[in-house]
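FAQ: What does the model actually see?

It sees only this:
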Amino acid sequence: VHTLGDAISKNSEEQALSKADMEAVDKAAKLMDHRLTNAEKRDSELSLRQDQMKDLIVKNSSDLRSYIALVQKDTETKLTESAHELGRTNVALLHTGQRLDTTNMGMQSLQGELNATNSSVGQLSVSLDLAHEYFQGVTKGFQDTHKSVIAG
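And it is asked to produce this:
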């Protein structure tokens, strides 16, 4: 009986330890269940945020593509306008160069005519000086003739 009492006592102690272990396991399971619930909630929230971010990325990508296309078109238009303006400027520069060449040839012609005119003026000056001397001589002759006629 005594052995049976010891066995029952030992069994009761083991049951108490088992019950304490079961309570600890149950407590740990409840804690893990709570943590798992929180993790699932966070996972759900993160999934929702991820979906929102994906939508935002898609929208921003679309907006960015549209903006890039607009900038490219605007740049292309400006480049085309600049090319046309450059072409017009080159034509105007060519015409200005041609007019400058024509003006230069005209100036050279005028320089030649001016040199010829200066030569002619020089010759006329010499001729005028000679004619002036002749007139002075004729005048002196008239004066001498007049004095002779008056003298008598």
